[in-house]
Amino acid sequence: MRTSASADVAVVGAGAVGACVAVELARRGRRVAVVEARGLAAGATGASFGWVSAQFGNYIDSLPDYHVELLATAVRRYSSLPQAAQDRIGYRPWRALTIGYDNTKVAWLAAAERRLRSADLDAELWDRSAVLAAEPGLSDDSLAALKTSDAMVNPFLLVRSSIVEVAERGGFVVRGAPVRQIAAGPAGIKWLETEHTRIEAPIIVNAAGVGSPKIARLLDLDVPVQANKGEQLIALAAAALLGSLVNGHGHLGQPVPGHYIIGATRENALDDTVTLRSAAALAADAVRTVPALAGALVLRAFAGVRPVPADGLPILGPDRRQPGYFNAVLHGGMTLAPLVGELIARWIVDGTAPFIEHYGIERFQPGLTQ
Amino acid sequence: MNATVDVVVLGSGPAAAAAGCRMSQRGYSSLTVSECVSIHAASLIGTFERGLLLRHADGTTGLAQARAIIAAPRRVPRIVPFSGWTSSLVEHGSLATAPARSRMLVAGSGPDVIATADAASRSGITLVGVVITELSAEEWRAAETLAGKRVVARVRAAHRRLVEDGVPVIGGIVTRAEDMQASLRIVVERDSGERLEFHADRLQVNHGSIPAIPVLGLLGLLPMAAWEPLPAGTAPDGTPVVAAGNLDLAFAPHLDERRGVRAADDAIRALARPATLAARSLPVIVECGLSLERERALVAKTDGSTLVCADERVTLDDVVSAIRDGAASLREIKMFTRLGMGACRGVPCAQIARSILAAFAPTRPPAVGLRARPPLNPVRLDELAEYDDR
Prior knowledge:
The complex is a heterodimer.
Chain A: E1 3-6, E2 9-12, H1 16-27, E3 32-36, E4 51-52, H2 65-79, H3 83-88, E5 92-100, H4 103-118, E6 123-127, H5 128-134, E7 144-152, H6 155-168, E8 172-175, E9 181-185, E10 188-193, E11 197-200, E12 203-206, H7 212-217, E13 225-236, E14 245-248, E15 250-256, E16 259-263, E17 267-268, H8 276-289, E18 297-309, E19 315-318, E20 325-329, H9 333-350
Parallel strand pairs in A: 1-11, 2-3, 2-12, 3-8, 5-14, 12-20
Antiparallel strand pairs in A: 4-7, 5-7, 6-7, 9-10, 10-11, 13-16, 13-17, 13-18, 14-15, 15-16, 19-20
Helix pairs in contact in A: 1-6, 1-9, 2-9
Chain B: E1 7-10, H1 14-25, E2 30-34, H2 39-47, E3 53-56, H3 62-70, E4 79-80, H4 86-91, E5 103-107, H5 111-122, E6 126-132, H6 137-147, H7 149-164, E7 169-179, E8 184-190, E9 195-200, E10 202-205, E11 233-234, E12 240-243, H8 253-272, H9 274-277, E13 284-287, H10 292-301, E14 307-309, E15 314-315, H11 316-324, H12 330-337, H13 350-360, E16 379-380, H14 381-385
Parallel strand pairs in B: 1-2, 1-13, 2-3, 4-10, 5-6, 5-10, 6-7, 12-13
Antiparallel strand pairs in B: 7-8, 8-9, 11-12, 14-15
């Protein structure tokens, strides 16, 4: 038995990116179908640290200017949301300290500070005494830290509030079965279907995260995305031990009072199993970073799989090979998803949007010219 | 797996677990097939591990998952619903954080009680009483078969020691517990029907024992009246079916367990009856499950401010609102509300959330429980850090 439905746009994937693309389209009057193979936030979003930051990942020095600007725009977009909108997604300021344990790293932090400031983001280099005064639980070999005014967002609430608004605006979610076929022609997309449902829609947005290559393949297209597994721990300890998000040996923070999230490993793998070896390594890093956490009780270990594009940067916008088909594939969705959602929606509705030109899939296709 | 068993028990709740245990106690082989492992099933396995083979519907052995669930850590609220791993709790010092000279009532009669009582005396906590299952001589012998003579001897010795220490050891069940601000008022109903009242600061309940408390009764969920046996029948292939039915975990687990025991006894009678001997190659099926209508009715009766997950302060209304917002699985309820994300690790609340989901879902929701997350026992960060696999 198959049901059918129609929509203006079908968004594939109900993670942070898919949900944000969907809600921004719905706000622009489009009837949206969100098609999700598993459950809401079942992929990378469900295992996210919830860290909103322009500098996470320790590689800001290698980023092109337009991407630093994109990150800065995304960060400012969050902070300028009305209070009620922030509350709905669990947005709160979260001071981040990226620790330098040796002079090489401290020099890197100083460079990162300049880069962030040039993008009008708050960043300060703190010396050892300032760091330890702010966070006495940190190990005393912390030489210096880059302090940034970052934020946290609750990944689940981000998806929840978006999906609710999509429904309020006439959209709907179809989940529980993967997209198995897409019909398309030179004029655009005709329909896509799962085992149970066919959805007629002239436009598809591929926001399927690690599953996005599979979706692209249904149209004989590709998306160069690597699955990268990250294991994390949740540990229980006194809330007073740490106020900041600390990016030291691994990173850790306390998004919920008393609950410390410790992450994350990096390994090219598609499975989301956890290993004792990784859990032990995470624990060791956490104790090295914050010795005061030694007695914290590890409640659970879990893993998520990051969708990391081949060059690390988002893959956004149309694919010229198939009218009606758009990519919205990226890692770092907690920071970027709301902004990317808006940009994709503007592109679809208005035919233009800032930033998108930098992130096209064409950059992986030397044979094609823009 | 290809096993010949006398009885197949369907279900994952207290009735199913109790029925499976009863079969084993009576010397029948049984296979309990569960959608997911409930705390009751899990804790009963903890007590009667040898007698119960519990299989997960997806083909993985439920035992490992059951152990993971049992081993979940607890914070130290005044009401500690599951005592199974009290000793590890004490090792981690959390019981020691109980206020000095506090009074505690323990319900449960297995080896866990020993650990609890020992821990309490070491921590300067006064035991105002221990509520146990009174077992007949025959049942004690069955327990020896299942748990081993040494374990049973330890349990019985511990019971004697408690009595010698002046701790009242009462055969019965906790039927009511009310938070009176200054203390908990706890009513124990003896097997004779006599009611006793206790006042304590903490209530430590071992759900795995038959005198388990309807813990949610503490929180206002106690519609225990709706209890009636479901009809038995015959499956299309002639397999006798004995239905236990249940009220579901949230509402009256000890009644469910009694029902499970009763259903098991019915099954045993069915097995023994000459008429069914011809069909002896077919197992008797004991079906333990609540009708959707019943679940809906129970949830509808319940006050919305009732805490479903005490650890994360998630109310019934929170869960209902998550479902209305599109949560269609336990995992999504967990994500939307934080239910089960605390120290409870979903042990007390996932089953309850499942009932609520069932009550609101147009059809019974898929039988997917919360995924069990390692470690089996909560472990200190520095101890985990020392692990070396070389």
